[in-house]
Amino acid sequence: MTSPTVRGTPVDARPLRADAERNRRRIVDAAREVFARHGLEAGLNEIARHAGVGVGTVYRRFPDKDSLVAAALDEEVARMLAVADAAQRSDDAWSGLVLLLEEGLVLLSSNVGLRDLLLSQRTDPLDDGPEHLFLPYVESLVDRARVEGTVRPDVTVQDVGMLWCMVSELARHSVDLAPDAWRRYLALFTAGLRAGAVPDVPPPLDEEVAQEVLTRWIGLGGTRAPGAS
């Protein structure tokens, strides 16, 4: 699998003066905290205030918001990819799928910005942003689980993506009140994916219909579940 990257406009790679490097680090640390708490809708003015610098200083170090997002969230994306790698190496696909969902939600529930980034709505179908890094893992685990007979034969990647999106939305709104509330609902939902564990249910949504439902639910410019095209 490829290494995680967060796209952004390249910045000058020349070494910075000590004071400039300190400012850059303050900005990145502030952005990491602000994005984690408020998501990627947070503006550069808010980040500058949190860092204790002027917004002009932010623009001198980061020519656009994408480059700041890249610097602030690359480590979090790497942690998420490490979870996906561990899930892929599981001896059985069901355990790997549950690991990816559970540990992924631990990271997403504590960082709104990471959730926004990985479940982001992209308008470019050829976009190679970090949210697309995880689709091959989900596809592989679902395919393996079908072969092993541990998931319902009609389970799709879109089902898993929808589940992840729903539970992560719950986690986002309950993290301050009941940080582990999402675990109950993840357990209930994943039980419905298991082969032979539940009665017959209606067939899954068509992929295009599933994407439209997500778009209407979350709104334009909102988030998209992994696996939804």
Question: What does the model show?
Answer:
Helix 5 runs antiparallel to helix 7, helix 5 (93-109) packs antiparallel against helix 9 (181-191) and helix 8 runs antiparallel to helix 9 (181-191). The chain has ten helices and no strands. It has 229 residues and is mainly alpha-helical.
In short:
This protein has helices at 18-38, 44-51, 55-61, 65-88, 93-109, 112-118, 135-148, 157-174, 181-191, 207-218. It has 229 residues and is an all-alpha fold.
List the keywords.
mainly alpha; 61% helix; 2 domains; Tetracycline Repressor, domain 2; disordered C terminus; 229 residues; elongated; 10 helices; disordered N terminus
SSE arrangement:
Blueprint: H1 18-38, H2 44-51, H3 55-61, H4 65-88, H5 93-109, H6 112-118, H7 135-148, H8 157-174, H9 181-191, H10 207-218
Helix pairs in contact: 1-2, 1-4, 4-5, 5-7, 5-8, 5-9, 8-9
Count of discrete structural domains? 2
Largest sheet composition = none
**What's the CATH architecture of the largest domain?**
Orthogonal Bundle
Strand tally is: 0
According to CATH, what is the topology of the largest domain? Tetracycline Repressor, domain 2
| SSE pattern | HHHHHHHHHH
Distance between the termini: 20 Å
Helix/strand/pairing class, anyone?
A: mainly alpha
Portion in beta strands: under 5%
**Radius of gyration, whole Å:** 19 Å
Mean pLDDT: 80
Mind telling me the CATH class of the largest domain?
Mainly Alpha
The amount of helix comes to 55-70%
Low-confidence stretches: 1-5, 122-127, 220-229
Oligomer: single chain
Number of helical segments with 4 or more residues: 10
